[in-house]
Structure formats: C-alpha cells, structure tokens
Amino acid sequence: MTLRLRALAALDRFHAAHPWDHNAHYHRWLLRQLPKRCARALDVGCGSGDLARLLAGRAEAVLGIDADPTIVARARELTPAGGRVTFAAGDALTAIPPGPYQVVTCVAALHHMPFDRALAAFRDRLAPGGTLVVVGLARAETVGDHLLGALAIPLNAAVAWLRNRGRPAPRPDAMTAPTRPPVMTFGEIRDQSRAALPGARPRRRLFWRYTLVWRAP
Fold it and tell me: Nearest-CA neighbor of 62 among 70, 53, 71?
C-alpha cells in the first residue's frame, strides 16, 4: 500500500471514531439568512429533524419531509409531541403540501433529486418575499474545487477532534440516513440555479458543501 493510501485509510479510521455532522455546521449560518419570525417553514430532506426543530424557534409551524421512512420515524422519536414540528415520509417533489411557506430549506438533499424540478417545486411553494436556503454537495471538477477540498481535510480533522474532545464518539443520528455522491459540478449548479431562480446566490463553502440563497419577489 502506498503512503497516500495508508494516509487516507488512517483518516477514514480517525473520522469513523470521531464523527461530526458537516451539515449541522451550517445550521447557524442558515438561520441567519431567515426572518426572525414566520408563519410556515418547510425543511426538505429533514433527516432526523435537527434543523426542523431549530426552525420551530422561528416559525409557527414546521413541516419536515424526507424520502426515507426510517429516518422520519427517528425524527418523530426525537421531537417532543404537541409542538410546532410535524414530519412526513414521501417524495419531496410530489408529497409536499402546496404551501405557501415563508421559508424553505434543503440541506444535503438536493443532489438526491432532479435539480431543475426540485428548484421549481421549492420556488412554487414559496410565499412572496419568502426565503429558500440550500446547503448542498457538488462534484469537484476545477482546480479551485480540489484546492478547497484539500484545505478542508486538516480542518475537518481538527474540528472532529475538538468537537469530540479527542474521544471516540457514536455517529450522530443525522449521519445514518442513506447517501449518494453528487453528480453536478458547482459550475452547473450555479448556472442552472441562476436560470431557475433569478438573483440566486450560490457560493462554494468549506467541508465539501455549497450554499444557495434565494428570496422570492
């Protein structure tokens, strides 16, 4: 085994013992993009419901939807009954109630859906003046993509060590849902999102993520 492969295997073992949720890392940033108060919020690809529960601090009612019924069942277990958050299992493009919603969020789920159809579904369910926030994954293609990914490797290990205080830890519930690798590059995401959502603001981010913010006219 080459030195590079041994290093990658060691990193894999380290992160398996010291996991942390890259998506939750962006939750605070995401909340800063949203109004302080709103009537209804929709979280698409809600997973175990971490973000949906945070949105309940802003919205009168929150719906979390995910295609995986197992993770939706876990989200219900973790959420106090009788609150502002409800969950549904189903296809995000066909099972979302019509709305309107003042807030739509989608974290690490858009690459599981047909991109254009998903953006159209989110757009059509937003109330006038509503906010869409996406935290997504893109396929690395350019030199810039690979450099940003390389920079994230030591930072990722440092954050994992600090968050877990150097001790082994179980995987967070949010990291147990099925995943798939992204196929679209950031350039494709940027161009197609701006065509579907005039004024959309996609940005590359650390930890193999991008963000997209759009406010409905």
Answer: 53
102 contact partners, CB below 8 Å, separation of at least 6: 35, 38, 39, 40, 41, 59, 126, 127, 129, 130, 131
Written as one letter, the residue type at 166 is: G
Rounded Cα distance between 22 and 175, Å, is 9
| Secondary structure E strands in the chain | 38-44, 59-66, 85-89, 101-107, 126-136, 201-205, 209-215
Which domain covers residue 112, as residue numbers?
1-217
Task: Name the DSSP class of 125.
Answer: H
Tens of each residue's pLDDT in the chain, 217 residues? 465 556 556 556 655 666 667 889 999 999 999 999 999 999 999 999 999 999 999 999 999 999 999 999 999 999 998 899 999 999 988 888 888 999 999 999 999 999 999 999 999 999 999 999 999 999 999 999 989 988 888 887 777 777 766 566 566 656 666 678 899 999 999 999 999 999 999 999 999 999 999 999 9
Number of domains in the chain: 1
CATH number reported for the structural domain that contains residue 201 in this entry: 3.40.50.150
φ, ψ of residue 8 to 5 degrees: the values are -65, -40
Entry pTM: 0.89
Q: Which of 97, 27, 30 is nearest to 61 (CA)?
A: 97
Beta carbons within 10 angstroms of residue 18's beta carbon? 20
